Amino acid sequence: MSCKKLAVLGALFFVLPLARAGAIVELSAEASRPATNDQIRAVVYAEANAATPGEVAQRVNQDIAAALHLIKSQPAIAVKSGNQQTYPVYGNSRKIEGWRMRSELILETRDSAVIAELLARLQQIRLALGNVSQSPAAATRQAVETAVTRDAIKAFESRATVVAETLGKSYRIKRLSIQQGGGMPPQPMLRASMAMAADAAPVPLESGESLITTTVSGEIELAD
Questions:
Q1: What pLDDT does residue 22 have?
Q2: 20 to 30 A Cα–Cα from 102, which one of 48, 59, 77, 79?
Q3: Distances from the Cα of 210 to the Cα of 109, 136, 183, angstroms
């Protein structure tokens, strides 16, 4: 084989000569496809100050109860409790002057129109919007991963064929490894504060896409 051909193929594989077996070639191939960010996750919270832990818990729990009543009227929305914190508020004299509590609810759905309207209504009943993020739903991601895995395997086979044909040999796959990767973290959409509650409007949501990647690597054995 000419030096020119070796330089071109050197970016694709390494040839390791063996004493009794055919040469081993290490290969890798990658494929990617976009996946729609069709899963929406929103964090809302109630927060209050009071003189005692009991008083602050009562205020926050009332707001959370009102929010849950509203959320559960929407079957398309799944809800679960998030972080909850109660801590003292110290004055200049380093003595406890009151208590502060924050309690979160985590909302998940694939219906952007419903949750956009719901978030606006929740802000009108004293809840604040922590953040909204979007990512592929489990079923969406799985479907794209299946398709992109097929693409990556085909790309590996194509690369192996190029190597074998260039060297004038046949081959067999000796080892194969498949790794799922890529995919962007959930895309943050926005943050809001309690000050927005009075003028809250439906939250504009754009789904966007995440890139799902599969890498196939392995070894082929060249035969005469």
A1: 79
A2: 77
A3: 17, 7, 5
